[in-house]
Amino acid sequence: MEDALRYADDHQDRFTGELEELLRIPSISTDPEYADDVQQAANWLASHLRSVGLAGVEVCQTDGHPIVYGEDLRAGEEAPTVLVYGHYDVQPPDPLELWDSPPFEPTRQNGDGHAEAIYARGACDDKGQMFMHVKAAESYLAADGEGGALPVNLKFLIEGEEESGSVHLAPFIEDHKDRLDADVVLISDTGMFAEGVPSITYGLRGLAYVEVTLTGPERDLHSGLFGGAVENPANALARLIAGLHDADHRVAVEGFYDDVQDLTDEERQTFQKLPFDEADWREEISLKESKTEAGYGVLEAVGARPTLDVNGLASGYQGEGAKTVLPAKASAKISCRLVPDQTPDDIAAKLERYFEKHVPSTMRLEFERLHGGQPALIDTESDAMQAAADAMEGVYGRRPFFTREGGTIPVVADFKNLLGLDTVLMGFGLESDAIHSPNEHFGLGRFREGIQSIIRFHQRYAERR
Amino acid sequence: MEDALRYADDHQDRFTGELEELLRIPSISTDPEYADDVQQAANWLASHLRSVGLAGVEVCQTDGHPIVYGEDLRAGEEAPTVLVYGHYDVQPPDPLELWDSPPFEPTRQNGDGHAEAIYARGACDDKGQMFMHVKAAESYLAADGEGGALPVNLKFLIEGEEESGSVHLAPFIEDHKDRLDADVVLISDTGMFAEGVPSITYGLRGLAYVEVTLTGPERDLHSGLFGGAVENPANALARLIAGLHDADHRVAVEGFYDDVQDLTDEERQTFQKLPFDEADWREEISLKESKTEAGYGVLEAVGARPTLDVNGLASGYQGEGAKTVLPAKASAKISCRLVPDQTPDDIAAKLERYFEKHVPSTMRLEFERLHGGQPALIDTESDAMQAAADAMEGVYGRRPFFTREGGTIPVVADFKNLLGLDTVLMGFGLESDAIHSPNEHFGLGRFREGIQSIIRFHQRYAERR
Fold first, then answer.
1. What chain B residue is nearest to A431 in terms of C-alpha separation?
2. Does the distance separating the beta carbons of A323 and B91 come in below 8 Å?
3. How far is CA A141 from the centre of its chain?
4. Which chain A residues are Cβ-neighbours of B94 within 8 angstroms?
5. Per-domain residue ranges of chain B
6. Do A226 and B311 touch (CB under 8 A)?
7. Selected residue with higher pLDDT from A22 and A266
8. What is the ipTM score, two decimals?
9. pTM above 0.80?
10. Is B218 left (phi over 0), alpha (psi -120 to 50) or beta?
C-alpha cells in the first residue's frame, strides 16, 4: 500500500492531465445529439483501463449508451472482491452563458478563496471521482515495490446513462450476475461534509421524475381575439403546480407521506452534531433565506425528507420582448426526492392521479414518467463501511461522519436487489462544486485525497475480511 | 369610383404578386436581429408608394424602426382628408415547426374547405390589409376614365413597430401634427365577423404587458443536494400566477375591475343578435370547451371584458429528457386585455403591487412593463362610420354589424388624444386567419373585397361630408 500511495503522489500531475482528456469529451447522455460523444468517452475509458493493466476490458453495447467493464482478479479467491461503479456521462451544460470557461475545455483555476480546481462539466460528477478509482488501481499495479498486485479483486462497471436514468443498467446487471459477483460495491459519486471534513453517506434519497403537459386549443392563439373565452394552459398549469404544496411547504399530493420512515431520535441527534453553519451554506449559493418543510432543519430536510420541485417550465413565447399569444400548451418537468420506504412508481402514480383529478375539463393532459430511483439506507457497521472510515481517517487524520445525503444513486438499490450487495459511498464532492450547474469544478486536492483514500480502502478491506 | 373598382378587379393578380414581394421580407420588429429586414420593408413600401403616384413619400427614421409616410392632397380643401394607418412589421413566426410552408415564402393554397389564400407571416396582420389601401389609392390614380383623381385627400402613415409596442409612434404623431392633420383615421387591422358577414369594430380592448422574474439562489442548484431547503422559484411563480384568478375565472388582482365600464343592456342585446355559433368557433381552434368569466358569453368575454393571460413561461431545464435542477430563476410574460376605462399604467401598477406583496421573502422580484395600449370605444353614428358601413354594404350586399373586438390597437387612443381624430376600423380578417400563430393566411377573396370596400369608402365619405 505504501508504494501505491507514493506512486500516486509521484504521478498526480499526469493523472490530472489524463482526467482533462476525458473531460474534453461532451458525453451528455440525455441529448441524442451527443450519442457519438458518449460512445467516444466509453472507448477512451476502455482503452485507458487496458493501458493501466486491467483485464477483460470491454465496451458493452446496450440499447442505449455503452457500459465499460474491466477487472483484475489476481488477488485470488482468499481476497474479497470490490465492484467499483461510476459513470462517464455528464449533465447538459446549460445555461451556457453562465459558465466562466467553456464546459468542455477543462480549465485549472483558483476558486474564490479555494484551492486549485479543474473547471469542466463532469469534473466532479462523476468523471473526476470515477477516475480516482482507475488511478488507485494503476497505483497498485504499476508501483514497483509491490510487484503490481492489488490486495483485493477489483471489477469496474462504468456506465454512460446515469444522468438519463440508467435505464439499461439494471438489465445489464441481471444479465451478468456472475461476472459482477463481488463482496461489496464501492462508489465515489457523493459529497463529503466540507473541505477537510470527511464523511461517508449512509442514506440516499430516491427520485421520481415526470413531465406534465396541458394542451388547450390546437394552436397558439391571439390573446386579444380569444383571451377571455379560452382557458389558458399556462395559467392552469401554474394553478395545478401551486396546489402541489401546502402552506407548511409540505407536499399536498394525496398519500405522499404514507410510506415515509420518520427520523429516529438518534438520527436527529446525529444531524445536530454535524459542524453545519447555515449562514456559510447560504452564502455559498447566494441565498437570502432557506425554506424547509415545517419542523425540520436544513440538513434534515435535504437528507431525510422527501420533496417536490419543478425542474423546468415552458410555455408560449420566451424570446425578447412581448408576443401577445395565448399558448396552446404548457409543460413542466417535476421531480420528487424520495426517502425510505417511498418508491418511484408509487409516487409517480400518486402524482399522476393528482394531475388527472385537477386537469381542467377544457384541456388534455399528458403525463410522462421520465425516470426514477429508489432511496437507500446502508448499515454503517459493516466491514466495508468501517474500512472506508479507516481509509479516510488515514488520509484526513479524523474519523469521518456518517451522513444522509439528498441526492439519488438508483443503482445502490439495484445492486442490493439484483446482486444482494451493499454499497459503500465514499464521496469527495462538495456542495460548492456546482455539479449540475454552470462552473462545475473539482479541487485538485480532493482528487489526490480521493485516490489516496481508495488505495487505503482496498488494503483495509482486505485486512478486515 | 366605377372606373377605380374596375381597374382594381382588372389588376387583382398583379396586386397579389406585389403583396407577396412584401411578405418575403421578414420584418419582425420585436427581434433586434431583424432590424435590417424591417428597414428593407420600409424602403420597399416607400418606393412602392412613389410608384403608384403618391407625393411626399418619406422613410422617416425614429429611434426605433422607421415610419413610412406618403400623401395625395389633390382633392383640395373642399374634400375631406383621410389618414390611413397601418403597419408593415410582423410578429415572430415561432413555433416554426408548426408551419406547413415557410413563413416568409408566401404560398397560395386552398385552406380546408376555404377559398384560396396566401399563407405567410403578415399575410393578414397587417401587410395584407395595409396593402389594400395602397392598391385602392392606385386604382383611383391609375384608372383612365377618372383622370387619376381621388375623391378625398389621402395620407398614409405606416409604422414598423406595431408588434413591439409602437413606442416611437406617439412622439412622431406629436412632432408632425400639421402634416398628419385629417378628418378621420381609417385602419384595416381588425376582423370581420365571418366570411361574407361584414362588420365594423367600434370597440377595442387595451393592453398591459409585463414580465415578472423571481430569482432565488444565485445559480441553478442540484435538486438532490439542495431540494427541501431552498424555495423553488418555479414553484413560487406558479403559486403567484395561480393567485391571479379566482374560482369564477375573474382576475383577483386588487382593484382590477374598479374602472371597468359594465356592458349596457343594449350592448348585451347587440351581442345576442350576432350570428355566432360557439360549436363552429370551438371547432375552428380545436377547443374542447370554452371558459369565460362567470356570467358572460364568449363574445362578451372576448369583446367587452378584461382578461389576464400568461403569454410565456420559462424556468430551469426545457430540453429533452430529465435534468435534476433546482432553477435559480423563473419568469413569466403576462398581459391583461383592458376595457374602458381601465388604463395600462394603472393596471400594470396594480399587477406590480400584487407581485410585490406576494413575492416570497426567499426571493428577489423583477417586474418589467413591456408595453401597453389604451382601450377604445367609437361612435357608430359618425359620417365616417356610416360611410364605411355603406361601402361594405356595396361590396357584400348586406349592412355590416357593429362589433366590439378583443384585440388592441393602441394608436386608436393616440389619434384621439394627439390629433383629436376618430378612427374607422374597417377590417377584413377572420379568426381562422391564424394571425400571431403558425400558418397565418389571408383569403384572396377578402383581399379583393377589402380593396373594393376602401375604394367605395373614399367616395361615400366625400359625398356624406
1. B225
2. yes
3. 29
4. 317, 319
5. 2-204+375-464, 206-260+306-373, 262-303
6. no
7. A22
8. 0.79
9. no
10. alpha
